[in-house]
Amino acid sequence: MLDDFFFRAVLGGIGVALVAGPLGCIIIWRRLAYFGDTLSHSALLGIALALLFDINVTLAVFGISVAVSMLLIVLQRRASLSSDALLGMLAHSSLAIGLVVLAFMTWVRVDLMGFLFGDILAITPLDLAIIWGGGISVLAVVFIIWRSLFAATVSYEIATAEGLSPDHANFIFMIMMAGVIAISMKIVGVLLITALLIIPAATARRLSNSPEQMAIFSSIIGLISVWGGLLGSLEWDIPAGPSIVVAALICFVLSVMPIPKRQRAR
Amino acid sequence: MSVLKEPEMLVSLENAGISRSDRWLVRGVSMSVSAGEIVTLIGPNGSGKSTTAKLTLGLLQPDEGTAYRKPHLNVGYVPQKLDLNWTLPLSVNRFLQLTNRASRAQINDALASTDTLHLANAQMSNLSGGEFQRVLLARAILRAPDFLVLDEPVQGVDSNGELALFSLIENIRNTLNCGVLLISHNLHIVMATTDRVICLNGHVCCSGSPANVASSAAFKSLFGEHVTSGLAFYEHNHDHEHLPDGRIHHNARTGGEENIDA
Q1: Does B80 contact chain A (CB < 8 Å)?
Q2: Which structural domains are found in chain A, ordered by start?
Q3: Would the ipTM clear 0.85, i.e. be above it?
Q4: With contact defined as beta carbons under 8 Å apart, do B90 and B124 qualify?
Q5: Which end of chain A is more exposed for a tag (fewer CB within 10 A), N or C?
Q6: How far is the C-alpha of A18 from the C-alpha of A16, rounded, in Å?
Q7: Contact: A154, B98; criterion CB under 8 Å
Q8: For the domain with range B9-74+145-250, which CATH number is right: 3.40.50.1460, 3.40.50.300, 3.20.20.300, 3.40.640.10?
Q9: In a mutagenesis test of the A interface, which of B83, B88, B118 is the best target, namely the one with the most A β-carbons within 10 Å?
Q10: How far is Cα B172 from Cα B179, in angstroms, rounded to an integer?
Q11: What does pTM read for this prediction?
Protein backbone atom coordinates (compact mmCIF):
# COMPACT_ATOMS: atom_id res chain seq x y z
CA MET A 1 0.00 0.00 0.00
CA LEU A 2 2.95 2.30 0.66
CA ASP A 3 3.53 2.13 -3.09
CA ASP A 4 0.39 4.11 -3.68
CA PHE A 5 1.25 7.82 -3.73
CA PHE A 6 -2.22 8.84 -2.61
CA PHE A 7 -2.11 6.54 0.41
CA ARG A 8 1.31 7.90 1.37
CA ALA A 9 -0.01 11.44 1.04
CA VAL A 10 -3.00 10.74 3.30
CA LEU A 11 -0.83 9.00 5.85
CA GLY A 12 1.70 11.85 5.87
CA GLY A 13 -0.99 14.51 6.00
CA ILE A 14 -2.71 12.87 8.95
CA GLY A 15 0.59 12.63 10.81
CA VAL A 16 1.17 16.33 10.34
CA ALA A 17 -2.40 17.31 11.22
CA LEU A 18 -2.27 15.43 14.53
CA VAL A 19 0.86 17.28 15.63
CA ALA A 20 -0.27 20.64 14.29
CA GLY A 21 -3.39 20.60 16.49
CA PRO A 22 -1.96 21.25 19.97
CA LEU A 23 0.89 23.43 18.71
CA GLY A 24 -1.52 25.51 16.64
CA CYS A 25 -3.61 26.12 19.76
CA ILE A 26 -0.57 27.40 21.67
CA ILE A 27 0.26 29.64 18.71
CA ILE A 28 -3.23 31.12 18.69
CA TRP A 29 -3.37 31.59 22.46
CA ARG A 30 0.01 33.30 22.52
CA ARG A 31 -0.62 35.37 19.38
CA LEU A 32 2.42 33.82 17.72
CA ALA A 33 1.05 33.37 14.19
CA TYR A 34 3.87 35.48 12.80
CA PHE A 35 6.44 33.29 14.49
CA GLY A 36 5.15 30.29 12.53
CA ASP A 37 5.37 32.34 9.35
CA THR A 38 8.95 33.32 10.09
CA LEU A 39 10.02 29.73 10.63
CA SER A 40 8.33 28.58 7.44
CA HIS A 41 9.90 31.37 5.38
CA SER A 42 13.30 30.46 6.72
CA ALA A 43 12.59 26.88 5.66
CA LEU A 44 13.49 27.87 2.12
CA LEU A 45 17.00 28.63 3.29
CA GLY A 46 17.07 25.15 4.80
CA ILE A 47 16.03 23.68 1.45
CA ALA A 48 18.76 25.60 -0.36
CA LEU A 49 21.40 24.42 2.09
CA ALA A 50 20.13 20.84 1.87
CA LEU A 51 20.57 20.90 -1.90
CA LEU A 52 23.94 22.58 -1.63
CA PHE A 53 25.38 20.04 0.80
CA ASP A 54 23.27 17.12 -0.36
CA ILE A 55 21.65 16.33 2.99
CA ASN A 56 18.10 15.37 3.94
CA VAL A 57 15.77 18.32 3.31
CA THR A 58 13.62 17.75 6.41
CA LEU A 59 16.64 17.65 8.69
CA ALA A 60 18.14 20.76 7.09
CA VAL A 61 14.88 22.70 7.47
CA PHE A 62 14.63 21.59 11.09
CA GLY A 63 18.18 22.77 11.75
CA ILE A 64 17.60 26.17 10.14
CA SER A 65 14.30 26.64 11.99
CA VAL A 66 15.95 25.91 15.33
CA ALA A 67 18.78 28.31 14.45
CA VAL A 68 16.31 31.06 13.54
CA SER A 69 14.35 30.52 16.78
CA MET A 70 17.52 30.80 18.83
CA LEU A 71 18.57 33.89 16.90
CA LEU A 72 15.19 35.39 17.69
CA ILE A 73 15.63 34.75 21.43
CA VAL A 74 19.07 36.38 21.35
CA LEU A 75 17.85 39.38 19.35
CA GLN A 76 14.84 39.87 21.62
CA ARG A 77 17.18 40.21 24.58
CA ARG A 78 19.69 42.51 22.88
CA ALA A 79 18.05 44.58 20.17
CA SER A 80 15.79 47.50 20.93
CA LEU A 81 13.31 46.45 18.25
CA SER A 82 9.86 45.02 18.85
CA SER A 83 9.36 41.31 18.31
CA ASP A 84 7.21 41.71 15.20
CA ALA A 85 9.87 43.84 13.51
CA LEU A 86 12.52 41.25 14.40
CA LEU A 87 10.32 38.44 13.09
CA GLY A 88 9.70 40.31 9.86
CA MET A 89 13.41 40.86 9.37
CA LEU A 90 14.30 37.24 10.07
CA ALA A 91 11.48 35.89 7.90
CA HIS A 92 12.21 37.81 4.78
CA SER A 93 15.97 37.98 4.98
CA SER A 94 16.24 34.22 5.43
CA LEU A 95 13.77 33.73 2.56
CA ALA A 96 15.84 36.07 0.39
CA ILE A 97 19.12 34.39 1.30
CA GLY A 98 17.53 31.03 0.48
CA LEU A 99 16.47 32.28 -2.96
CA VAL A 100 19.89 33.80 -3.62
CA VAL A 101 21.66 30.56 -2.70
CA LEU A 102 19.30 28.61 -4.96
CA ALA A 103 19.98 31.00 -7.83
CA PHE A 104 23.74 30.48 -7.50
CA MET A 105 23.38 26.74 -7.79
CA THR A 106 22.89 26.65 -11.51
CA TRP A 107 23.60 22.94 -11.60
CA VAL A 108 20.52 21.98 -9.59
CA ARG A 109 17.09 22.22 -11.12
CA VAL A 110 14.71 23.05 -8.30
CA ASP A 111 10.97 22.77 -8.49
CA LEU A 112 10.38 25.89 -6.43
CA MET A 113 6.62 25.57 -6.72
CA GLY A 114 6.86 22.18 -5.10
CA PHE A 115 8.49 23.63 -2.03
CA LEU A 116 6.26 26.68 -1.86
CA PHE A 117 2.98 24.80 -2.15
CA GLY A 118 3.92 21.26 -1.18
CA ASP A 119 4.35 18.25 -3.38
CA ILE A 120 2.39 15.17 -2.48
CA LEU A 121 4.08 13.07 -5.15
CA ALA A 122 7.41 13.72 -3.52
CA ILE A 123 6.53 11.93 -0.28
CA THR A 124 8.78 8.91 0.06
CA PRO A 125 8.52 6.09 2.59
CA LEU A 126 11.51 7.73 4.31
CA ASP A 127 9.54 10.98 4.59
CA LEU A 128 6.68 9.03 6.11
CA ALA A 129 9.03 7.54 8.67
CA ILE A 130 10.32 11.02 9.53
CA ILE A 131 6.79 12.48 9.75
CA TRP A 132 5.47 9.75 12.03
CA GLY A 133 8.63 9.26 14.07
CA GLY A 134 9.10 13.00 14.52
CA GLY A 135 5.39 13.60 14.98
CA ILE A 136 4.98 11.03 17.73
CA SER A 137 8.08 12.35 19.51
CA VAL A 138 6.75 15.92 19.32
CA LEU A 139 3.35 14.84 20.66
CA ALA A 140 4.97 12.94 23.52
CA VAL A 141 7.10 15.93 24.51
CA VAL A 142 4.16 18.32 24.24
CA PHE A 143 2.16 15.98 26.47
CA ILE A 144 4.92 16.01 29.10
CA ILE A 145 5.43 19.78 29.17
CA TRP A 146 1.75 20.64 28.59
CA ARG A 147 0.97 21.87 32.11
CA SER A 148 3.99 24.21 32.21
CA LEU A 149 3.42 25.34 28.65
CA PHE A 150 -0.23 26.11 29.23
CA ALA A 151 0.36 27.75 32.63
CA ALA A 152 3.00 29.99 31.05
CA THR A 153 0.51 30.83 28.29
CA VAL A 154 -2.04 32.00 30.85
CA SER A 155 0.43 33.80 33.10
CA TYR A 156 4.18 33.68 32.84
CA GLU A 157 4.47 35.27 36.27
CA ILE A 158 2.22 32.80 38.08
CA ALA A 159 3.97 29.88 36.39
CA THR A 160 7.39 31.22 37.38
CA ALA A 161 6.43 32.18 40.93
CA GLU A 162 4.88 28.79 41.54
CA GLY A 163 7.93 26.93 40.34
CA LEU A 164 7.01 25.55 36.88
CA SER A 165 10.11 26.89 35.07
CA PRO A 166 8.24 28.13 32.00
CA ASP A 167 11.48 29.21 30.31
CA HIS A 168 12.37 25.56 29.75
CA ALA A 169 8.90 24.81 28.43
CA ASN A 170 9.04 27.80 26.06
CA PHE A 171 12.43 26.76 24.76
CA ILE A 172 11.25 23.21 24.10
CA PHE A 173 8.12 24.59 22.45
CA MET A 174 10.23 26.55 19.96
CA ILE A 175 12.15 23.42 19.02
CA MET A 176 8.90 21.49 18.63
CA MET A 177 7.64 24.24 16.32
CA ALA A 178 10.77 23.94 14.19
CA GLY A 179 10.16 20.20 14.01
CA VAL A 180 6.56 20.61 12.88
CA ILE A 181 7.53 23.15 10.21
CA ALA A 182 10.15 20.73 8.92
CA ILE A 183 7.87 17.72 8.73
CA SER A 184 4.83 19.51 7.34
CA MET A 185 6.69 21.28 4.55
CA LYS A 186 6.19 18.52 2.02
CA ILE A 187 2.47 18.32 2.72
CA VAL A 188 1.35 21.91 2.38
CA GLY A 189 4.50 23.73 1.36
CA VAL A 190 6.42 26.60 2.89
CA LEU A 191 3.81 29.28 2.21
CA LEU A 192 0.85 27.46 3.70
CA ILE A 193 2.25 25.75 6.80
CA THR A 194 1.00 28.45 9.16
CA ALA A 195 -2.50 27.94 7.77
CA LEU A 196 -2.44 24.28 8.78
CA LEU A 197 -1.40 25.32 12.28
CA ILE A 198 -3.84 28.16 12.74
CA ILE A 199 -7.06 27.40 10.85
CA PRO A 200 -7.92 24.08 12.55
CA ALA A 201 -7.16 25.60 15.97
CA ALA A 202 -9.33 28.62 15.20
CA THR A 203 -12.10 26.27 14.10
CA ALA A 204 -11.81 24.24 17.29
CA ARG A 205 -12.15 27.35 19.47
CA ARG A 206 -15.86 27.65 18.80
CA LEU A 207 -16.47 24.01 19.72
CA SER A 208 -14.39 23.71 22.89
CA ASN A 209 -14.82 24.45 26.58
CA SER A 210 -11.35 23.54 27.78
CA PRO A 211 -7.83 23.99 26.41
CA GLU A 212 -7.23 20.24 26.18
CA GLN A 213 -10.48 19.79 24.28
CA MET A 214 -9.46 22.54 21.87
CA ALA A 215 -6.09 20.87 21.27
CA ILE A 216 -7.73 17.51 20.48
CA PHE A 217 -10.48 19.03 18.34
CA SER A 218 -7.99 20.97 16.26
CA SER A 219 -6.07 17.76 15.56
CA ILE A 220 -9.31 16.12 14.43
CA ILE A 221 -10.29 19.09 12.29
CA GLY A 222 -6.82 19.12 10.76
CA LEU A 223 -7.23 15.45 9.97
CA ILE A 224 -10.58 16.07 8.27
CA SER A 225 -9.07 18.96 6.30
CA VAL A 226 -6.19 16.81 5.07
CA TRP A 227 -8.53 14.01 4.04
CA GLY A 228 -11.02 16.36 2.36
CA GLY A 229 -8.33 18.42 0.71
CA LEU A 230 -6.56 15.40 -0.74
CA LEU A 231 -9.81 13.94 -2.07
CA GLY A 232 -10.59 17.29 -3.68
CA SER A 233 -7.11 17.45 -5.12
CA LEU A 234 -7.53 13.99 -6.66
CA GLU A 235 -11.03 14.73 -7.92
CA TRP A 236 -10.40 18.10 -9.57
CA ASP A 237 -6.67 17.78 -10.24
CA ILE A 238 -5.71 20.78 -8.13
CA PRO A 239 -2.51 21.18 -6.09
CA ALA A 240 -2.81 19.30 -2.80
CA GLY A 241 -1.40 21.89 -0.38
CA PRO A 242 -3.75 24.74 -1.26
CA SER A 243 -6.59 22.22 -1.51
CA ILE A 244 -5.98 21.13 2.12
CA VAL A 245 -5.93 24.73 3.31
CA VAL A 246 -9.17 25.47 1.47
CA ALA A 247 -10.74 22.41 3.10
CA ALA A 248 -9.63 23.72 6.51
CA LEU A 249 -11.11 27.09 5.67
CA ILE A 250 -14.43 25.46 4.78
CA CYS A 251 -14.42 23.74 8.19
CA PHE A 252 -13.79 27.10 9.83
CA VAL A 253 -16.61 28.81 7.95
CA LEU A 254 -18.96 25.99 8.96
CA SER A 255 -17.89 26.40 12.61
CA VAL A 256 -18.73 30.09 12.72
CA MET A 257 -22.16 29.60 11.15
CA PRO A 258 -24.83 30.39 13.72
CA ILE A 259 -25.81 27.24 15.62
CA PRO A 260 -29.56 26.55 15.54
CA LYS A 261 -30.98 27.48 18.96
CA ARG A 262 -30.47 24.52 21.21
CA GLN A 263 -29.64 24.58 24.90
CA ARG A 264 -25.97 23.77 25.08
CA ALA A 265 -24.84 21.77 28.06
CA ARG A 266 -22.60 23.81 30.34
CA MET B 1 2.80 28.11 69.66
CA SER B 2 5.98 27.65 71.57
CA VAL B 3 7.38 30.94 72.73
CA LEU B 4 10.93 29.72 72.52
CA LYS B 5 10.88 28.62 68.91
CA GLU B 6 11.42 31.31 66.32
CA PRO B 7 9.01 30.97 63.38
CA GLU B 8 10.81 29.89 60.25
CA MET B 9 11.81 32.64 57.84
CA LEU B 10 10.37 32.04 54.35
CA VAL B 11 11.67 34.97 52.33
CA SER B 12 13.80 37.95 53.06
CA LEU B 13 15.21 40.95 51.23
CA GLU B 14 18.44 42.56 52.38
CA ASN B 15 18.94 46.11 51.18
CA ALA B 16 17.43 45.09 47.83
CA GLY B 17 17.05 47.48 44.92
CA ILE B 18 15.85 47.32 41.31
CA SER B 19 16.87 49.88 38.74
CA ARG B 20 15.47 50.34 35.27
CA SER B 21 16.97 52.80 32.79
CA ASP B 22 18.95 54.64 35.47
CA ARG B 23 15.98 55.02 37.76
CA TRP B 24 15.57 53.13 41.02
CA LEU B 25 12.12 51.57 41.24
CA VAL B 26 12.85 50.54 44.81
CA ARG B 27 16.07 50.77 46.73
CA GLY B 28 17.39 49.71 50.10
CA VAL B 29 14.43 47.48 50.92
CA SER B 30 14.98 45.10 53.81
CA MET B 31 12.12 42.95 54.93
CA SER B 32 11.19 39.38 55.70
CA VAL B 33 8.14 37.16 55.97
CA SER B 34 8.06 34.24 58.39
CA ALA B 35 5.69 31.31 58.62
CA GLY B 36 2.38 32.23 60.20
CA GLU B 37 2.81 35.94 59.69
CA ILE B 38 0.78 38.43 57.66
CA VAL B 39 2.94 41.27 56.36
CA THR B 40 1.29 44.08 54.46
CA LEU B 41 2.90 46.47 52.01
CA ILE B 42 1.24 49.85 51.76
CA GLY B 43 2.24 52.96 49.88
CA PRO B 44 1.13 55.32 47.13
CA ASN B 45 0.96 54.40 43.44
CA GLY B 46 4.38 53.76 41.97
CA SER B 47 5.95 53.28 45.38
CA GLY B 48 7.28 49.83 44.41
CA LYS B 49 4.86 47.54 46.23
CA SER B 50 4.41 45.07 43.36
CA THR B 51 8.11 45.30 42.51
CA THR B 52 8.99 44.39 46.10
CA ALA B 53 6.56 41.47 46.03
CA LYS B 54 8.13 40.25 42.76
CA LEU B 55 11.56 40.43 44.35
CA THR B 56 10.44 38.11 47.14
CA LEU B 57 8.98 35.73 44.53
CA GLY B 58 12.12 35.66 42.39
CA LEU B 59 10.25 37.15 39.41
CA LEU B 60 12.76 39.99 39.50
CA GLN B 61 16.40 39.72 40.49
CA PRO B 62 17.75 42.53 42.65
CA ASP B 63 20.33 44.80 40.96
CA GLU B 64 21.61 45.62 44.41
CA GLY B 65 21.40 43.78 47.71
CA THR B 66 20.15 40.21 48.09
CA ALA B 67 16.91 38.27 47.98
CA TYR B 68 16.57 35.01 49.86
CA ARG B 69 13.85 32.42 49.38
CA LYS B 70 13.61 29.16 51.27
CA PRO B 71 14.38 26.30 48.86
CA HIS B 72 11.35 24.42 47.45
CA LEU B 73 8.98 26.96 48.89
CA ASN B 74 5.40 26.20 47.91
CA VAL B 75 4.11 29.54 46.65
CA GLY B 76 0.58 30.76 45.92
CA TYR B 77 0.51 33.98 43.91
CA VAL B 78 -2.34 36.34 43.07
CA PRO B 79 -0.85 38.88 40.67
CA GLN B 80 -2.15 42.42 40.47
CA LYS B 81 -3.18 41.99 36.87
CA LEU B 82 -3.99 38.99 34.74
CA ASP B 83 -5.07 39.60 31.16
CA LEU B 84 -6.71 36.51 29.78
CA ASN B 85 -6.82 36.08 26.06
CA TRP B 86 -10.41 35.48 24.91
CA THR B 87 -9.23 32.77 22.54
CA LEU B 88 -8.53 30.61 25.62
CA PRO B 89 -11.39 28.28 26.42
CA LEU B 90 -10.77 28.14 30.16
CA SER B 91 -13.26 27.13 32.81
CA VAL B 92 -12.90 28.10 36.45
CA ASN B 93 -12.30 24.44 37.30
CA ARG B 94 -9.45 24.13 34.84
CA PHE B 95 -7.98 27.48 35.86
CA LEU B 96 -7.78 26.33 39.48
CA GLN B 97 -5.56 23.47 38.32
CA LEU B 98 -3.27 25.77 36.36
CA THR B 99 -0.07 24.86 38.18
CA ASN B 100 -1.02 21.71 40.09
CA ARG B 101 -3.47 18.86 39.97
CA ALA B 102 -6.25 18.79 42.54
CA SER B 103 -9.14 16.53 43.43
CA ARG B 104 -12.75 17.51 42.86
CA ALA B 105 -13.24 17.90 46.63
CA GLN B 106 -10.19 20.15 47.04
CA ILE B 107 -11.36 22.36 44.19
CA ASN B 108 -14.85 22.64 45.62
CA ASP B 109 -13.47 23.51 49.06
CA ALA B 110 -11.30 26.27 47.66
CA LEU B 111 -14.17 27.68 45.59
CA ALA B 112 -16.59 27.46 48.51
CA SER B 113 -14.19 29.39 50.75
CA THR B 114 -14.32 32.35 48.37
CA ASP B 115 -18.05 32.01 47.66
CA THR B 116 -17.54 30.98 44.05
CA LEU B 117 -18.65 27.36 44.07
CA HIS B 118 -21.56 28.22 41.76
CA LEU B 119 -19.02 29.42 39.15
CA ALA B 120 -17.09 26.15 38.94
CA ASN B 121 -18.08 25.46 35.34
CA ALA B 122 -18.24 29.05 34.14
CA GLN B 123 -15.73 30.30 31.61
CA MET B 124 -13.11 32.66 33.04
CA SER B 125 -13.84 35.18 30.30
CA ASN B 126 -17.44 35.54 31.52
CA LEU B 127 -16.65 36.43 35.13
CA SER B 128 -17.18 39.89 36.61
CA GLY B 129 -14.21 41.74 38.09
CA GLY B 130 -15.04 40.77 41.66
CA GLU B 131 -15.76 37.14 40.75
CA PHE B 132 -12.48 36.98 38.87
CA GLN B 133 -10.55 38.19 41.94
CA ARG B 134 -12.26 35.63 44.15
CA VAL B 135 -11.36 32.85 41.73
CA LEU B 136 -7.76 34.05 41.62
CA LEU B 137 -7.67 33.85 45.41
CA ALA B 138 -9.29 30.40 45.40
CA ARG B 139 -6.62 29.17 43.01
CA ALA B 140 -3.80 30.40 45.21
CA ILE B 141 -5.41 28.87 48.32
CA LEU B 142 -5.93 25.53 46.59
CA ARG B 143 -2.18 25.03 46.47
CA ALA B 144 -2.08 25.04 50.30
CA PRO B 145 0.94 27.31 50.01
CA ASP B 146 3.69 27.96 52.53
CA PHE B 147 3.98 31.47 51.19
CA LEU B 148 0.98 33.37 49.87
CA VAL B 149 1.51 36.58 47.91
CA LEU B 150 -1.60 38.65 47.32
CA ASP B 151 -1.19 41.75 45.16
CA GLU B 152 -4.34 43.75 45.74
CA PRO B 153 -6.49 40.65 46.06
CA VAL B 154 -9.80 42.44 46.64
CA GLN B 155 -9.86 44.91 43.74
CA GLY B 156 -13.38 45.06 42.38
CA VAL B 157 -14.81 43.12 45.31
CA ASP B 158 -17.71 44.81 47.13
CA SER B 159 -17.07 46.01 50.67
CA ASN B 160 -18.88 43.15 52.41
CA GLY B 161 -17.01 40.64 50.32
CA GLU B 162 -13.81 42.48 51.09
CA LEU B 163 -14.22 41.96 54.83
CA ALA B 164 -15.10 38.32 54.29
CA LEU B 165 -12.04 37.77 52.09
CA PHE B 166 -9.72 39.38 54.61
CA SER B 167 -11.06 37.20 57.39
CA LEU B 168 -10.60 34.26 55.02
CA ILE B 169 -6.96 35.24 54.55
CA GLU B 170 -6.55 35.27 58.34
CA ASN B 171 -8.21 31.85 58.53
CA ILE B 172 -5.87 30.44 55.92
CA ARG B 173 -2.90 31.79 57.79
CA ASN B 174 -4.20 30.14 60.95
CA THR B 175 -4.92 26.75 59.40
CA LEU B 176 -1.91 26.45 57.07
CA ASN B 177 0.47 28.50 59.22
CA CYS B 178 1.70 30.07 56.00
CA GLY B 179 3.41 33.40 55.58
CA VAL B 180 1.30 36.00 53.78
CA LEU B 181 2.59 39.01 51.89
CA LEU B 182 -0.31 41.32 51.20
CA ILE B 183 -0.56 44.46 49.13
CA SER B 184 -3.64 46.49 49.80
CA HIS B 185 -5.05 49.97 49.54
CA ASN B 186 -7.68 49.56 52.18
CA LEU B 187 -5.89 51.00 55.19
CA HIS B 188 -8.79 50.26 57.54
CA ILE B 189 -8.77 46.55 56.93
CA VAL B 190 -5.02 46.36 56.63
CA MET B 191 -4.60 47.87 60.04
CA ALA B 192 -7.04 45.36 61.49
CA THR B 193 -5.74 42.12 59.99
CA THR B 194 -2.00 42.56 59.72
CA ASP B 195 0.82 41.50 62.02
CA ARG B 196 3.32 43.83 60.44
CA VAL B 197 2.98 46.79 58.10
CA ILE B 198 5.70 47.98 55.76
CA CYS B 199 5.15 51.41 54.38
CA LEU B 200 6.91 51.88 51.04
CA ASN B 201 7.70 54.87 48.94
CA GLY B 202 10.63 53.77 46.80
CA HIS B 203 12.27 52.77 50.06
CA VAL B 204 10.96 51.54 53.41
CA CYS B 205 9.44 54.65 55.04
CA CYS B 206 8.50 52.94 58.23
CA SER B 207 7.55 49.49 59.39
CA GLY B 208 6.30 47.73 62.48
CA SER B 209 3.06 46.77 64.11
CA PRO B 210 -0.06 48.46 62.66
CA ALA B 211 -0.49 50.62 65.74
CA ASN B 212 3.09 51.85 65.67
CA VAL B 213 3.05 52.59 61.98
CA ALA B 214 -0.28 54.39 62.12
CA SER B 215 1.05 56.79 64.73
CA SER B 216 4.40 57.41 63.03
CA ALA B 217 5.10 60.76 61.43
CA ALA B 218 6.34 59.21 58.18
CA PHE B 219 3.06 57.39 57.71
CA LYS B 220 1.04 60.53 58.36
CA SER B 221 3.04 62.59 55.92
CA LEU B 222 2.72 59.89 53.25
CA PHE B 223 -1.01 59.36 53.47
CA GLY B 224 -2.12 62.69 54.88
CA GLU B 225 -3.58 63.53 58.26
CA HIS B 226 -7.19 63.34 57.05
CA VAL B 227 -6.84 59.69 56.06
CA THR B 228 -4.84 58.47 58.99
CA SER B 229 -6.60 60.27 61.81
CA GLY B 230 -9.87 58.48 61.20
CA LEU B 231 -8.40 55.00 61.16
CA ALA B 232 -10.99 53.15 63.16
CA PHE B 233 -11.37 49.45 62.67
CA TYR B 234 -14.90 49.47 61.48
CA GLU B 235 -17.03 46.44 61.40
CA HIS B 236 -20.03 45.80 59.24
CA ASN B 237 -22.44 43.08 60.19
CA HIS B 238 -25.73 42.17 58.57
CA ASP B 239 -28.49 40.11 60.11
CA HIS B 240 -28.71 38.12 56.87
CA GLU B 241 -26.47 37.00 54.06
CA HIS B 242 -27.08 36.66 50.35
CA LEU B 243 -26.22 33.19 49.22
CA PRO B 244 -24.49 32.81 45.88
CA ASP B 245 -27.58 31.33 44.27
CA GLY B 246 -29.61 34.40 45.17
CA ARG B 247 -31.39 33.07 48.26
CA ILE B 248 -31.28 35.03 51.49
CA HIS B 249 -30.17 33.39 54.68
CA HIS B 250 -31.10 35.02 58.01
CA ASN B 251 -28.54 34.57 60.73
CA ALA B 252 -29.92 33.14 63.96
CA ARG B 253 -28.01 35.61 66.06
CA THR B 254 -26.91 38.98 64.87
CA GLY B 255 -23.29 39.82 65.12
CA GLY B 256 -22.52 36.14 65.16
CA GLU B 257 -20.23 36.37 62.20
CA GLU B 258 -16.58 36.20 62.76
CA ASN B 259 -15.37 39.55 63.98
CA ILE B 260 -12.29 41.22 62.83
CA ASP B 261 -10.46 42.46 65.85
CA ALA B 262 -7.83 45.05 65.93
Answers
A1: no
A2: 5-256 (1.10.3470.10)
A3: no
A4: yes
A5: N
A6: 6
A7: yes
A8: 3.40.50.300
A9: B88
A10: 10
A11: 0.82
